[in-house]
Each structure stands twice: as structure tokens, then as C-alpha cells.
Amino acid sequence: MCNWHVPVCVSCRINLRPKKNGVTFIEDDGIGNPYAIWDSDMWDCPCCGISVLTGFGKEPWRLHFDSDFHQVVEKEMNSEWTIRERPKQERKVENEP
Ligand SMILES: [Zn+2]
After folding, report:
1. What is the mean pLDDT of the chain?
2. 94 pLDDT higher than 80
3. How confident is the model at residue 45 (pLDDT cuts 50, 70, 90)?
4. What is residue 88's three-state secondary structure?
5. Cα of 8 from ligand 1 centre, angstroms
6. What pLDDT does 3 receive?
7. Does pLDDT of 78 surpass 70?
8. How far is CA 77 from CA 34, 39, 47, 81, in A?
9. Quick one: pLDDT at residue 82?
10. 61: CA distance to ligand 1 center in Å?
11. Domain ranges across the chain
């Protein structure tokens, strides 16, 4: 039995809708270098337009110590469906986990 619910937009109080499956997310190591490569799904809100990534697997499909890691990062960065995490020093938010 599946008790999963689709993501919800808090501002609009409606369900997000699936936009794209198989979006690559490149996690940053905190100081500007790729650390891990994740598969995810992109959802967006039909009302306000916010987009989120969710549906990550349990583990990344590549990690920084894998022999082909940098080639894979380079290849994935050529896709419009790859999101690279912004390094911490380029962010303006505080109290981020
Ligand atoms: Zn919304």
C-alpha cells in the first residue's frame, strides 16, 4: 500500500505537478566542488511557478571518489535538466541546515 502524497505548495495550498523525471542534481561539497550526483524529479506549482526537486533515491549514483566522477559531472552539466547546487559562499541565506 502506498501512502505517498505529491508535494504541496504551502503558499498556494495546492498540489505541485510533476514537471520532469530524471533531473540530475549535483551536490556541492560546501566549498565549490561537486561532491555527489543524484537523480531526482522536478515538480512545479501551476499557480505561483515555484519549482522543487524531490524523489531522490536513497543514494547518489556517483560520488566524488568514483574514477569517472569528473567526466560524468562534465557530461551532465551539458544537459538543461541538470541542477548544480550553489556553493555556500555564493548564498545569502542564514541558518541553513
Ligand atoms: Zn504555489
Report:
1. 94
2. no
3. very high
4. helix
5. 8
6. 83
7. yes
8. 11, 13, 29, 9
9. 98
10. 30
11. 8-88
> Given the C-alpha cell 549535483, which residue does it identify?
26
In the prediction, which pLDDT does 96 show?
67
Q: What is the mean pLDDT of residues 87-94?
A: 79
Instruction: Write out the DSSP string of 6-73.
Output: --EETTTTEE-EEEEEEEEEEEE-SSSSEEEEEEEEEEE-TTT--EEEE---SS-SEETTSTTHHHHH
CB neighbours of 74 closer than 8 A, spacing ≥ 6? none
CB contact burial 46-84 (16+ within 10 A = b; e otherwise): eeeeeeebebeeeebebeeeeeebeebbeebeeeeeebe
Sign of the C-alpha dihedral computed for residues 74, 78, 79 and 83 taken in this order = positive
Q: How far is the CA of 55 from the centre of ligand 1 (A)?
A: 19
> What is the predicted pLDDT for the residue at 1?
58
CA of 52 to the centre of ligand 1 (A): 11
